[in-house]
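Aim 2 progress update. The chain analyzed this quarter is reproduced below.
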Amino acid sequence: MAIQNVEKDHSRFRQIIKGAVRKNLRKYISQGQILGKEGNKTVAIPMPQIEIPRFKFSGDGESGVGQGDGEEGDAIGEGEGGGQGQAGDKEGEHTLEAEISVDELAEILGEELDLPKIKPKGSASLQVVKHKTTGIAKVGPESLRHFKRSYREALKRQIASGMYDPKNPTIVITRDDKRYRSFKAEMSQESNAVIIYMMDVSGSMGEEQKQVVRIESFWIDTWLRHNYKGIQSRYIIHDARAREVDRNTFFRTKESGGTMISSAYSLCAEIIENEYPLEDWNIYPFHFSDGDNWSSDDTEKCMALLKDKLLPAANMFGYGQVRSPYGSGQFIKDLRKHFPDSEEIILSEIPDRDGIVNSIRDFFKKGK
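Predicted structure tokens:
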């Protein structure tokens, strides 16, 4: 009974934590401190206004502890303080940091934004080995020993042989008593997915704009990993030319220069064509920019690449435009002009960090 009560209290506490996260979701999403964490790694969530218990006088007039000077209801244990600083007339804030996994944050994000479950396209293709428990065996490695079943066998043996003493219920597990979990390896099909991030790192993209992109990319990655078992992430940065980089470079680069968006789209199309067969992969390209491009000719080249190469290959193509005091913001207007009714391309304007949550909803509200 005590264990059940503890489990019930722990479950209730987890619900309190999730409630606090939902209440402050935009704040947690927009923070950059979580970047780089994955899967079952945990993050600390501050839980304010935790009440500190205090003993009070009972006031029933009986002798014993609590007698002496003071009024009914006065808190005890408040002696003369030796702390530093000025006295105040306001209560202190008591905070507790509770840990929650990145996976749980992704689940809360999906629930709070009312995001539908992703519906993978095509046939599942990734072969994954899974081990399924099939029963109990008398032999096996110690790491798979089933304690309860072994204990039960030892108890049965001692009772049957008359060795069990209820007054001294010592159970000795022998070699013949030991039982082990047995497993069977099975091949299962898992949906394959690749996310290709493209980020404009030209001179008009300031450090704050790049940080907005990095934070949103992290949460997009986290949400998709919550939906897919097998997933890969690829990273492209571009100014006047594009190049593929690793995750660390993508989240820390400070490059600048001119802007030719077509260089990123060309590289993205090349990666898809060479490495990700359309019948086997769910493909998610995302491009983030401030909407400034070198020329109208390059913009036309981008539109052709989208129409002929990227949109036919992708589950969806996401374009997020970050507001910048230096960018023209023209590119999203050109996309709306060329693809007014397309369901494959999803556009989102991101004014600042507070706009990240709405942008994620824009991209995944259709569950593509």
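The chain has three domains: 1-50+94-112, 126-188, 191-364. The first strand starts at residue 42 and ends at 47. These observations will guide the mutagenesis experiments scheduled for the next reporting period.
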